[in-house]
Amino acid sequence: MAAAACGGRATPHGWAPARAVEVGGKDMVLVPYKSKLFSLQPDSATANWQFPPKDKGSYPVSEDASTRIKEMIDALSIEGTAKKELEQRVDDLRLTGDTKDTLKKAIDASAASAGEKKDLKTTIDAAVTFESDALKKLQAIYGDLGLSSDGETVYVTTFRGMVFALDTDTGTPRWVRDAGSQIVGGVAVDGDMLFFGTKDKRLYAIDARTGERTWAFEAKGEVWSTPTLDGGAVYITSLDGTVYAIDKAAGTATWTFEGARSGIAAQPVVADGAVYVGAFDNRLYALNAADGTMKWSIKGDNWFWAKPVVEGGIVYAASLDGKVYALRAEDGSDAWPEPFDAGAPVRSSPVVAGEGLVVVARNAVLYKLSLETGEQLGGSPADLTDESTVEADLALVAEGKVYVLPKSSNFWIFATEPELRSQGSFPLPN
Residue 362 — φ and ψ, nearest 5°? Predict the structure, then answer.
């Protein structure tokens, strides 16, 4: 999908950045690509798992569905040994293949009543059908991945509107939920709560352990941004041009900002009592986090879609006009002699790494800039030769490494210290 600019209509653009995780002492990199998610070993293209799996016949029903089925079996009016035998068959239940029929035949052969058998088989059919269908036509993973505090669960939103909680180590499902609307943004995680927005103008708060809804807030426009959490507030933007501060516990609006003259799809950033966010009216806004009043704004020559970065009292913001702006957080005045011109639109959010600002333009050229002056530093520019466009956000990991994910099927790793240099590219699994 492509994005228009200069007054055109926005469509979802790019996809989620890669993310490094550690689970049980094992390092891995989670790489979303189009409608797939890969778990790779660090610095290689070796896959631990991929989602959806190549072989759906080996993919189990979710832990949630398995638990519900076992609870029904435990309530059957049959003796304990027979219950255990049925529960063991539930452990083998897969989304395709003959495991469902095998389980249902075992239920028919049990001493359960006719009504118990019917209810149990209906539940099994519904779970397998729903979860099997959920894996089909995910369309895209546009939004940021969410990660539990212990790193053991990754939360994935899909454009089709399905939300998955996956075991980070194996990629198998813990639970699956249908949001009822397409999802562009990603998941924000706060302890046992998850937050995400939808195209039907809602922000949802759900229980991270169960996927059950806690509350829903209705915005005035489609919510494309990944929510931003800060203290007791959830900050979101919407395509009608509004910024919202939502009470995290109650799900009610604390304040709204409606000063943008066009839609907003960018994720807001909160720092030092201010909210920074770009809009499709070519402006970057600084708002007071306490009440949503505007501190200042600056105008570029095209949309601000990339999430800004705040470091050392300076706001670094990239625009589709191809420029990177450095602005003093206190008043929006220029911190560099002039904006840096990347020569191509910048959709990806930059990162601070190696004592510089690392930026990638849509034309797959990577830069490391001085935080103080905006001048190019050692190893810059780095041209990802023969690559397609780059629109996923950059991802910063330990040791100053930056992950770059182009629209081609290669995954790039760059070191940022002492200068910008490639550490290789790796083809994603087919």
Answer: -60, -25
- The CA distances from residue 126 to 62, 105, 107, 118, 238, in Å, are 13, 17, 16, 12, 35
Pairing state between β 356-360 and 410-415: unpaired
Q: Which structure tokens are listed for 311?
A: 């470091």
> Which residue reads 């023969």 in tokens?
386
CB 413 within 8 A of CB 402: yes
- Distances in whole angstroms, Cα of residue 365 to Cα of each of 234, 342, 391: 34, 8, 11
Pairwise CA distance, residues 412 & 430, whole Å: 17
What are the pLDDT digits (tens) for 34-75? Answer: 999 999 998 887 899 999 998 877 899 999 999 999 999 999
Q: What is the DSSP letter of 267?
A: P
- Angle among Cα 258, 262, 263 to the nearest 5 degrees reads 85
| Token couple for 309 | 């970065």
Cβ burial, residue 383 (10 Å; 0-12/13-18/19+): exposed
Q: For 110-166, how does the pLDDT look when each residue is reduced to its tens digit (9 = 90+)? A: 999 999 999 999 999 999 999 999 998 889 999 999 999 999 999 999 999 999 999
The Cα 194–Cα 416 span in angstroms is 33
Structure tokens at 122: 């209906």
Rounded Cα distance, 30 and 21, in Å: 7
Q: Give CA–CA dist 387/364, Å, rounded.
A: 6
Q: What residue ranges define each of the domains in the chain, with the CATH number in brackets?
A: 57-134 (no CATH), 306-430 (2.40.128.630)
Is residue 107 classed as helix, strand or coil in its secondary structure? helix
| Backbone angles phi and psi of 124, in degrees to 5 | -65, -45
- Helix (H) / strand (E) element for 255: namely strand 253-257
